[in-house]
């Protein structure tokens, strides 16, 4: 069990993360990729992610074991401000810190020693150090470009296509916790967290692989809900780092898992949402316009009759989604900014 000890000052400094942390989601998703549990929620995601993975991930596999400790430097606190900011912080990691955390990982101590138990107790004293990890330990920061490259490639395949879904889940979690905070302050906020977290003032108890106490000492606590965190909360090993508690978003646990809905790629989410909003055929027609299409081209691309293509284009033109220009005997349909925003699911063009 993990016990987080609060003072009055700490309660005043409890805060919710403003967004999902891309590095935490990436690292924790690597755990989800390698286990077989929660197939209802993650089964399709695993299949789709593996099919997209064409980059090297063996170094990630060495740094992120299936269970137990992984280095704190993989999830810098700056990651809460965005993917690029987090990678910049990782790029600037101090060599002595990297060596210290890699040595802890390389001890082969599994869960126990990684969280402060003696290696002899955890049974990891004779565990061999994987060759890739040993090479990384010996090379130090010179291997950082390779690590950053693997992280980028894996993130693009496993997390980026689903980012809108992840954001929505975290926003729902923030809304629920924000209401609790408004209703009863920090005490109510902590009491409202998911069941694996239990507020027994002034201590927050968490299901955890080992017995551990964390004393905040007036630094407060950042609560970071996560889509890919499952069953138990996660915190940093180093007690001197800014305290953060990563925990499973309750909205994700209650909705997608119970309803049997799998996490879906961004483009598929947009297609499904657009279809629900304007109808499947009209969404196909709007997408078929692309960079411009005549009515006959539109009919051919969308697989509808000429009359149907003309009718759908007329309805969408009246709704402000399409502009039609006449060129001789033909007309050219183009998508308006409003129509383009609808196709992007409301996202602002980059």
What this model shows, in words?
The structure is a single chain. The protein is an alpha/beta fold and about 350 residues long. It is built from 18 helices and eleven strands. The protein has a four-stranded mixed beta sheet with strand order 3-4-1-5, covered by helices on one side. The chain has a four-stranded mixed beta sheet with strand order 2-6-8-7. The two termini are about 45 Å apart.
Quick recap:
By secondary structure, the chain is of the alpha/beta class. 52% of the residues lie in helices and 13% in strands.
Secondary structure: helix percent: 40-55%
Distance between the termini: 44 Å
Dominant shape: globular
Written as H for each helix and E for each strand, in order along the chain, the element string is: EHEHHHHHHHHHHEEEEEEHHHHEHHEEH
Low-confidence stretches: 109-126, 254-260
Largest sheet: 4 strands, mixed
């Amino acid at each position: 069990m993990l016990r987080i000890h609060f003072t009055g000052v700490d309660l005043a400094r409890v805060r919710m993360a403003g967004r999902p942390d891309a590095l935490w989601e990436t690292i924790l998703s690597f755990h989800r990729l390698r286990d077989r549990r929660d197939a209802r929620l993650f089964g399709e995601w695993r299949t789709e992610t593996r099919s997209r993975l064409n980059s090297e991930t063996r170094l990630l596999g060495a740094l992120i074991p299936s269970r137990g400790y992984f280095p704190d430097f993989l999830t810098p606190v700056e990651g809460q401000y965005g993917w690029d900011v987090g990678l910049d912080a990782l790029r600037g990691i101090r060599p002595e810190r990297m060596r210290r955390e890699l040595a802890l990982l390389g001890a082969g101590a599994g869960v126990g020693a990684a969280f402060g138990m003696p290696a002899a107790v955890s049974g990891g004293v004779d565990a061999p150090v994987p060759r890739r990890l040993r090479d990384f330990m010996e090379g130090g920061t010179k291997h950082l470009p390779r690590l950053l490259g693997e992280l980028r490639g894996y993130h693009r395949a496993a997390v980026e296509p689903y980012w809108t879904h992840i954001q929505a889940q975290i926003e729902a979690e923030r809304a629920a916790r924000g209401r609790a905070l408004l209703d009863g302050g920090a005490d109510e906020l902590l009491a409202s967290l998911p069941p694996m977290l239990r507020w027994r003032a002034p201590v927050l108890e968490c299901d955890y692989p080992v017995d551990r106490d964390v004393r905040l000492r007036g630094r407060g606590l950042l609560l970071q809900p996560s889509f890919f965190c499952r069953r138990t909360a996660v915190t940093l090993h180093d007690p001197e780092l800014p305290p953060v508690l990563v925990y499973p978003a309750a909205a994700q646990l209650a909705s997608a898992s119970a309803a049997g809905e799998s996490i879906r790629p961004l483009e598929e989410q947009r297609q499904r949402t657009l279809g629900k909003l304007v109808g499947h055929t009209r969404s196909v027609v709007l997408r078929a316009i692309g960079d411009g299409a005549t009515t006959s081209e539109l009919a051919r691309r969308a697989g509808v009759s000429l009359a149907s293509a003309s009718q759908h284009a007329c309805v969408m033109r009246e709704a402000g989604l399409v502009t039609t220009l006449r060129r001789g005997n033909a007309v050219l349909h183009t998508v308006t900014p409003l129509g383009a925003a609808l196709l992007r699911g409301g996202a602002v063009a980059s």
